[in-house]
Amino acid sequence: MWFSYLVAFLLTWQVFCHAINNPSSEEKQADYSGYSLHRFKVDTSSNTMEKLESYDMELDKNTQTARLLIDIWAEPSKQNPHADILVAPEFLEKFKALLTREELVTLKMIEGDVQSQINAERHAMFRNSIRRRKRSLKSWKDFDVNSYHSYDKMVEFMKLLSEQKSDMVELIKVATSSEGRSIYGVKIHPPGGSPPEKPSIIVDAGVHAREWIAPAVGLFMIRKIVDEYGRDPQVTANLQKFDWYIMPQVNPDGYEYSRTSDRLWRKTRSKNTTVNRWCIGADANRNWGYRWGEAGANRTPCSNIYMGSHPYSEPEIRGLKEYFTWQIANPMVYISLHSYGQLLLSPWGYTHERTENYQDQQNAAKEAAMAIKNTTGVSYSYGTISEMMYPASGTSIDFMQHRGVPYIYGVELRPTDNPNSFAFNLPPSFIRATGDEMMAALNAIGTHAVKVKRL
Ligand SMILES: [Zn+2]
């Protein structure tokens, strides 16, 4: 008996070592050895961040590869004027010199070797996958919302849920990605359906590939609404008042690429060889057509915030726009989940001017932040994109505002001031608390909308 255990152990160990040393059999992993993460205080009225951002990529025409030199992970905001920036080892001296010139002296290194953090996350995921094996789900209840999953597994869960809870959940297809993946979401309504003009709450997540906590929270909320309907009074009331559209992963190509090849991938995976042969993808949250290419836009295809060759050049965003425009009759709340920074960001992004419903949006955000605080004790700040940080145009937030949706927030989920500096590598043990607080925030915004709009 012990011998078979020993053989089984050795085989598992061999597979484990192979996977760690050769993380993906078909594709080489991006390597961030020696990249360090820095936090420093910035005067948000200066253009320091724009200056730094202009150095983000270096293109080596001999090897035809783009190498990341600098990457902004967390933008400073008025409430928290600290920036987190990833710096390539060969750029570190120049980076420090630039900061000295800008008289920024409070530099603090919060992670010395980002690759070791990425490796630790991969080890943990691999141990988890050995434990769970690749079993297919028998019931939607078997889906573990407290883990990070492949896109296929997310779709399997949503399909199963829509079959087994067909009185409440409809599977919706919103777009097809550049690489041909179907982008699914769910529409959740009370058993028996809803009248056609019922107001809706719309949630999308995963726009930026590496922000893994966002799709995990989207899936967590789907499960929570279905589970708690009829049990939790707030969930029940908000499902009776609103239809919920939740699209937990709207950039599946980028997400899978971040899982298999480059953990820090942010953009889509579109190829546009007429524009640039070397650099792939666009920033899906700079590609919306309303005020596309204005403030804070980047026209360099290699940049991490490249706005795309034209408005809606990315099929994911084109599909979302069509779906939002033609399939959702009465959108009342729109939330786009991102990470990280613990912020609730409302329009406008392209200008410092205030929207006409600015005060009402801020009132709802205040209630959401209070609900979060009461649920997990964590603090989220709120304000408009342009007033909290730097202008950004071509975002879904501005598109939805232009469309007349009353309550709109781009949410930067956890972490922020965490001493562990998890950044994008937030361990799955945080999914539950982050999901619970976001559910509380959305319930608070829903309750506010019901009161103010007399729904
Ligand atoms: Zn994001």
Automatic annotation (TrEMBL):
Catalytic residues (positions): 412
Domain Peptidase M14, chain residue ranges per copy: 147-449
Primary residence: secreted
Molecular functions per Gene Ontology: metallocarboxypeptidase activity; zinc ion binding
PROSITE patterns noted in UniProt: CARBOXYPEPT_ZN_1, PEPTIDASE_M14
Pfam families, per database record: Peptidase_M14 (PF00246), Propep_M14 (PF02244)
UniProt KW keywords: Carboxypeptidase, Disulfide bond, Hydrolase, Metal-binding, Metalloprotease, Protease, Secreted, Signal, Zinc
Alphabetized SMART domains for the sequence: Zn_pept
UniProt protein name: Peptidase_M14 domain-containing protein
